[in-house]
Write a structure and sequence with these properties.
The structure holds 2 protein chains of 2 kinds. Chain A is an alpha+beta fold. Chain A has a single domain, classed as Roll (Thiol Ester Dehydrase, Chain A). Chain A has 4 helices and 5 strands, in the order E-H-H-H-H-E-E-E-E. A 5-stranded antiparallel beta sheet of chain A has the order 1-3-4-5-2. In chain B, strand 4 and strand 5 form a beta hairpin. The chains are: A alpha+beta, B mainly beta. At the A-B interface, helix 1, helix 4 and strand 2 of A face helix 1 and strand 2 of B.
Chain lengths: 138, 148
C-alpha cells in the first residue's frame, strides 16, 4: 500500500514484495536505451566469453527497479526519494523471477525522513542486490 | 598487497562531459526500459497536477549519464576484470525535459578488501550531475571492483 503522510509510517512497514519476471528483451531494451549495449548485457554467448554464467542485468537497471519500488510506495504522498545506495552482490540473471522488497528501518520526525532497507532476491531467496534508501517529506 | 597509485589522482577532475539534451521522448523511452508507468513521469496532464508541475524523469535516470570516453584512461584498474559493485546516489533536484546535463567526475577513494574469494581493489568515482543552470541534480558515488 502506498503511504499517505509521514506520521502514518512505522518502523517495520514493508514495501512490496513485487514479483517480476525479468526477460532478456527487457534487459536488452534497457542496455540499448542507456548506451550500455555490450555483450554481457545483450547476449548469452558474449557474456560467457567474459566468464559470466550468461547475460546479466546492468547494475543501473537493478538500481532503477529498486528506485521504482520506493517511488511506488511514496505514491502521491508528496515525499521524495532523497538517497539510494545499492550493492551488487551477485549478478541478476534475466529469464528468471526476481522479487523486490523493502522495509522501514528508521523514522526521523525532526526531519520528516524515513530510512528503508531494500533488496532484490532470486527464486532461491538469495539477496542479489541490497540497498538503503532515504525519503523525505516536505 | 598494498594498493599502489599516485595520490595526486584523488579529487582531480579530468573533464566535464559535453551537455546531453534531455527530451520528454528520452524520458519516455527510459520509462519503457525500466517498466515505469507512473503518470508523473509519463503523462503531461497528470504531471501538471503533480508536485513539479511538469513531467520529470524518474530519479534513477540520473545514473544513466556516462563519463567521457577518456575518463577511464585516468582511472587505475589494478587488474583486468572491472565490475560494477554498487552506487550511492544523492538525488538533489529533478531532471526535466529541456535540461542539458553534464557530468564531472573524480576518483574519490581507492581501497583494498579481502573477502572469501580473495583480494579486491575498489575504486570509488564521484560524479556530480548538473543541469544547464549549473544546479546540481545528483551526486553519484560509483564503486568499481577489480581483482589485482
Amino acid at each position: 500500500m502506498p503511504i499517505t503522510q509521514f506520521d502514518a509510517v512505522k518502523i517495520g512497514d514493508t514495501l512490496g514484495p513485487q514479483e517480476i519476471y525479468l526477460s532478456k528483451d527487457q534487459v536488452r531494451t534497457y542496455a540499448r536505451t542507456c548506451g550500455m549495449d555490450v555483450p554481457r548485457f545483450t547476449d548469452d554467448e558474449g557474456a560467457r566469453k567474459e566468464g559470466l554464467p550468461g547475460m546479466i542485468a546492468p547494475g543501473n537497471l537493478s538500481l532503477a527497479m529498486l528506485s521504482r519500488l520506493v517511488t511506488d510506495w511514496i505514491g502521491q504522498s508528496g515525499a521524495r526519494l532523497a538517497r539510494l545506495g545499492t550493492t551488487y552482490r551477485q549478478p541478476v540473471q534475466p529469464d528468471h523471477m526476481i522479487t523486490l522488497s523493502g522495509f522501514v528501518t528508521h523514522t526521523e520526525p525532526a526531519e520528516k525522513r524515513v530510512e528503508i532497507d531494500v533488496w532484490i532476491e532470486n527464486e532461491d531467496a538469495e539477496r542479489l542486490v541490497i540497498g538503503t534508501a532515504s525519503i523525505e517529506f516536505p | 598487497m598494498a594498493v599502489d597509485y599516485d595520490p595526486a589522482l584523488i579529487g582531480r577532475v579530468f573533464e566535464v562531459t559535453d551537455p546531453v539534451n534531455v527530451s520528454a521522448e528520452h524520458i519516455a523511452k527510459f520509462c519503457t526500459a525500466i517498466g515505469e508507468t507512473n503518470p508523473l513521469y509519463t503523462d503531461e496532464a497528470a504531471a501538471k497536477k503533480g508536485p513539479y508541475g511538469t513531467i520529470v524523469a524518474p530519479p534513477s535516470f540520473a545514473v544513466t549519464f556516462r563519463n567521457g570516453r577518456h575518463f577511464f584512461t585516468h582511472v587505475p584498474r589494478f587488474g583486468s576484470a572491472g565490475f560494477d559493485a554498487g552506487k550511492d546516489v544523492e538525488f538533489v533536484a529533478p531532471i526535466r525535459p529541456g535540461d542539458k546535463i553534464t557530468l564531472s567526475s573524480h576518483v574519490k577513494e581507492i581501497y583494498e578488501k579481502t573477502g572469501r574469494s580473495g583480494s579486491m581493489v575498489f575504486v570509488v568515482v564521484r560524479s556530480t550531475v548538473k543541469n544547464q543552470n549549473s544546479e546540481v541534480v545528483a551526486h553519484i558515488d560509483h564503486r568499481f571492483m577489480n581483482r589485482p
